[in-house]
Design brief:
homohexamer; Jelly Rolls; 2 domains; 5-stranded antiparallel β-sheet; 18% helix; globular; disordered N terminus; secreted (chains A, B, C, D, E, F); metal-binding (chains A, B, C, D, E, F); Germin (chains A, B, C, D, E, F); Germin-like protein (chains A, B, C, D, E, F)
Chain lengths: 212, 212, 212, 212, 212, 212
């Protein structure tokens, strides 16, 4: 079989050359502007296995905050290897009493996998305002459809840990309280569009650093 | 030219037959189960021009309600002709003082076209909780990106009318107050996930018919 | 509640930073090359509410022309805020006797909303060459499936106004007469591929400024 | 190695069962209604290799007709194996002087591969009415972007044969002359929307069997 | 505020009715035929929170088999709630020495999250046959681009556990050895298309229960 | 009709200007970085009909190699006109005894059209490891679903020629033997993940130039 090795070698080389631009993956070049489908791809010469591995979810997030919880994302901005591949991930840490407040992901559905602890999780349908919520234990998974309001609460006696994945490299995260109370949206606009009392709005603006 | 007419005729007929199943459109058969991409298509023999025309947006919605406003949808459920075509529409009527409360469309971006009156409209980004809002006049259009919280308020002295279109036949509509206060989501879950005071939650549950 | 404000503040800031690149929207940077999915996004720092509002549809188009009609587009080139969001818009003005000639949008379906006047509109299916047309009045909407030949004619006694939206930021517009008669496509190629008489072709080339 | 065979066997069987519903392909069940994404899938038990092979393009189409040409499609209606796979095919036969008249595919881009003969092919852009056309020889391929008017003419001295493929299982085919002249679209609507003379319209309606 | 409660109530009810068909989610009705985009949706009345929760990943898979490993899927067939939502999940259990053999997912990219143990994982690019592999520890994640050959090996001293998610409700799984050696693909075809020796092929066919 | 020509001319010009950026096509600018959806578009001024025509498939590939076969691609890297259009092509030449070895296209389905000769072609499903293969003759077409292992063998007495098209401008090509034996993937990893004997692996690594 030795004799046709040279011929084959030529064959291999020519293939390597011809297909050099085939796009198996598209590691994000974060130094360039992104577009509607994601970031431009890094050249393959600048890609290594470390482009596809992310260790940032290995460390617990800091839960010493008002919500006693932390979301550590591995979206395209943190993990450029997911660019263009329709998926990303995050880690949720919830201390005792911790809560991931009511929020939406405008651009993705989410699967939650409980690694440790007990979490009460739910979402609200838009069709009929039906609330779907349940207490989840270690090993349970739950799906949250794209764009719907949902929440996770540590309902156990110890801390809880979950791994989440999203159907987009860039799912977005709109936390209701931040959207309403942590910016300069005038109190009058908040009350008019939510029917909340002005005192309630001003109180939460105070807590969350909002103005107006 | 008369002489090759018979030959051509055969040609035409055979084409009609061959392409009878080409899918130019897919008028929804609402009697069947929908799927992730929409409803099964009606047979072409059951389709007429009226499948593609909808007159339900020609009548003003009833604004004699708490929000002094009405949304009249022409989504796939009302207007089966849009099934599978990536677009739908609605009409907004806002009486003096009327407001379309804070809401999201989980499945579509929206363009608002002001036909009459003056509307203050805005949305909140998830990236940095930035509020983008402006007073719009007749002829102005505004785009609301998919899944983000947004609102419209009649900020003029007369009634306002707008036409909206969506980038999906089935955009969804999640009105924040309905999601939080018009169902059986327990008050404790609302307060825990939104930091609203229980009294505020109970008050709005009372108004909106929610329980729990 | 004041006491945990500092902690929360840190929380907020870190979120702002972490999610700074989340893509809620992608306002087109028209100075850069577009790609198959649209234009690269402007940096958020260069985006304001005016990126999402367009007033160009507020002014009637000039109908003093051969078709007594005007199409005023708000596609991505005019309205960069729609980039990547799957939707765009336009305004149609039709003077008495005005007509939007037979045309297609290669990249989008269209919804027409009649604001004023009476319009006879229709499209032709490819499956069986069936013509679907109807006289539309104020408030009616009609859907035109992607890529099919369609037209709009002012069939009333006064001027007509319509708002249209498309299922793409960049729907394209191929006007049949322009495609056949307003360029340098040789007359012989036109007659061969359309069976029109050469005299007819040359006459319309004359009117529309075509050559060949 | 014999000893662990039983264990492995169990492993295999359980995999076969678990993944029985994985959708590698979705051969169209043409007896059911299609939807926006195509036809429901046949059960795998009803699928054989013949579901993925089509011999209908092996026979020359009948070119004894007015256009001296024939299009033999292998779209989903003829070749159910392409359902859901984003591709389909057809065969073009052009006798001496044959022409595939000006047409569009509303739902797909097309690649033309010349197997035999010489074909003058072209398309017209919508952006600027630019005509792109060229004489193609054996082995040449040409791409026609989705939804744009295009044509193919046998410009050689012998018959021509081409294979075409499309970026959709259901590309559609709207032949301009059939759309305008082979149905009951009233002559007045044709003249108004195309600026063609009534005499020209009536003449072609006569040839193509149109009425009105 | 009590006085306008009745009016509001009507408003709520009419919304519930109008939007009853809005598609927030599409829980698979597995009793019906699937299509290219997934299964038809169950009626909302048949949906409960249990449609969105799956506990099957909470139990370790049986690793008493030749590969000392198990894949427990939560694809649409096992977890109907993910239908149409662009995501699914699975659990990997690897005993000491366990291996998930070389395989592809024809329809999805994959993220692997190491919960316990040490896993050597890698994939091979098609562009230049480059191998990207690395030893992953607890908390690491790795992305495997769609359709590329990849593998996971327990390279630690204890058992390993990982959670994986996919960018499709139906990612597919083609295990190389099963495809080549566990069916009736004739040995001659295997040797011709893989250059493996016939003796090697026959040996593995023997182990895996293949014939031919 | 001459008299309104000037007015029309203005109309034409203004349209040309307004729609100059409409994206009918997006010829790849290969000098720029690609992204998840393809390459940035060349400016229209740099596009000619030659951007849409490719002659590289007109010449037989060199089959003087170990597989007695050649694949000549017209993917986006060779044929920039297909960028963003969802389709590409290639030519297969198989000398007597030639074979396109077991491979996958991670990003596209494929249609094979037999122009000359006799080819035995097949693919293996992932769902149940079912092999679908058949001997194809001139004029037959076969569809290979995305991402599945497949092969083509010249099973006739003369050379064979086929034209293939893909449902992506960038289908990718992962040849099994190259992936396993033509790179630096350590022999031990190959044997562990494929159950092949080390001798077999080393033998093929020798032939294909692999190391490790």
């Amino acid at each position: 079989m030795k004799m046709f090795l040279p011929i084959l070698f030529i064959f291999c080389l020519s293939f390597s050359a011809s297909y050099a631009s085939v796009q198996d993956f598209c590691v994000a070049d974060l130094s360039m502007s992104d577009g509607p489908a994601g970031y431009p791809c890094k050249k393959v010469s600048g890609v290594s296995v470390d482009s596809f591995v992310y260790s940032g979810l290995g460390t617990a997030g800091n839960t010493t905050n008002i919500i006693k919880a932390a979301v550590t994302p591995a979206f395209v901005a943190q993990f450029p290897g997911v660019n263009g591949l329709g998926i990303s991930a995050a880690r949720l840490d919830l201390a005792v009493g911790g809560v991931i407040p009511m929020h939406t992901h405008p651009g993705a559905s989410e699967i939650l996998f409980i690694i440790e602890g007990t979490i009460c999780a739910g979402f609200i349908s838009s069709s009929a305002n039906i609330v779907y919520f349940k207490t989840l234990n270690k090993g349970d998974i739950m799906i949250f459809p794209q764009g719907l309001l949902h929440f996770q609460i540590n309902s156990g006696k110890g801390s809880a840990l979950a791994f989440v994945s999203f159907s987009s490299p860039n799912p977005g995260l709109q936390i209701l309280d931040f959207a309403l109370f942590a910016n300069n949206l005038p109190t009058e606009l908040v009350t008019t569009t939510t029917f909340l009392d002005a005192a309630q709005v001003k109180k939460l603006k105070g807590v969350l650093g909002g103005t107006g």
